[in-house]
Specification:
about 600 residues, alpha/beta, 26 strands, globular
Amino acid sequence: MLDQYFNQDQIDSYLSSFNARKLTSREVDVYKKENRISITCGWSIPTTIPYKDKILDFHLIFTEHSSIPNIYVQHEDFIPLNFPHVENFGKLCIWPENVVADLKDLDYLQELLRDGVELLSKVVNKQITKDFESEFESYWFFNANNFQNKDLANLDLRKTSSREVAFYPLSNNRYLFCENVDKMQHTLEHINQKTIIEKSKIASFKARKTCLINMPRAIHPDEYPKTIYELLELIKKDFPHNYTDIRQLIAKAISNPNISQPQLLLCFNTVNGQALVGLRLAHGILYRNRSNSYLDGYRFTLPIDVLFYRMGQIKLFGRLINRIDSSWMIGREKNKDLTHIRKHKVAVVGCGSVGSSVAKLLIKSGIKDLILIDGDILSTANLSRHELDQRYIGVNKAVAMKYYLESIFPFANIKSFSQNFNNQVEIVQSFQKVDLIISCTSDWYAEQQLLNLQTDFQCPIIFGSVEPHAMAGHAIVNLPETNAYNSLYNLSGSEIGTLKNTVCLWDNDTLEKIPACAGEFQPYGAIELGFITSMIAKKSLDIIRNSAELSTHSIWLGDTSQLNELNGSWNPNIGVDMDTMAQGSKILEFYYDYNNSIWNII
């Protein structure tokens, strides 16, 4: 069987109307050898497209690893970089990988062949050479020599100037590029750490300098520079007014005697975004070829004209770059809110199951500056619903979260305090520049202290909490001097610090005991918790984007059937009718009428 629907004879019969010829075993073996993949069978199909006095043929190749067959163009000229949308061995890139075809209907082959002919016609007639620019990185891939070990770059590509940048050699012949030495040190500390207990040291840190050239256009494959001389010719062509300045940057980058293989960076602004790539020299200025050296006749430096005369024929190798800057990692430069979001600083008080997830969601959403506060250490019992893993067992949660998040997002700037909030001077001072405080402690006394300080901070506070079994969760936004949060809680007596009206009612005590002094916990899982932490994080971003004008109360209602299985029920006294709450799995929104001290549903 060719696949679960048709065998080879059925495919052969269908393709006969296209004058198809089934490939011989020897012809199929060529693809097996060249592609190193399992080829099932294939057919040769003539097109009507002439090229160099010859009508081009397709080879329709079925593999074991692809539901939709691949199409190859049969001509020696059809190799990568000669034409757009042509990959190794003449493979045409016709349909995106996410296309789904109805494999039960062989007419999908007719559609594939039709689209292939249409694409090939445009390729041969040079109608889509602009795709070399809009899809630049796909073609540079074939010009690069580091497919497996890409270099890293934490650069601000919003800067449009050509400039000097810092780089540092990593393992596997990779380089890390940053805007300056300070940013390099910051990034290295993040990407090199293994655990908080054994933080990697950057021994004898010495960042080197190279240059980033912001090109005015994306170049075509026939312009990819293969030598220093070809690069200079490209620069002269594209920078007629500041060629001398760019030339000086290149000269400084390649003449450093402490760098065995200098590397330059090129940035291209395409219609689909910015493309950052590298050009690495085969060797540096101290390289000696037989009896000759580039520095012969000069002690330390070469005049710039002599430098390029002697080093002009050094080979350049294309390099692929993995970007680790916030613009790329948070939305691949398409996040329109990012510029606004990353200007804000947020404090998260409490880094347990709720706070750790909220903190990670905020970083993923673009918050760059974060303050984390927690006095507890991570235990094995926390792992099932905490963002941290077993590497951080026995480590303070706030400190561990700092290193965990910074290791994933090198652009993050996180400050941690390994103590519970209790009006400590250092922590209070750190709040002076925050735009939002998120309390996930469920510590009544800490929350009241935050409220007492809010008049000084004049920033919103979000209080996030979870009810038993995570069947309900809360995100309460308290604006300064509104008393919104406290209006929902008992403020005196034996019930002090508890909600006046919980969302869920329970037949039995929900706390579970453990064999320890005062040992008890609320049982809930990571899935149920995820809805609540997402609600808290979303409310945080809404405030950052739009500023809060009202104190609000967001309530997540879990699944009603699960609530009933746990012997719980919805509370009819929370301000909405039971029909609204019946099915659960929704968010209820309320706003606080400060003048009348009442909550109204939105």
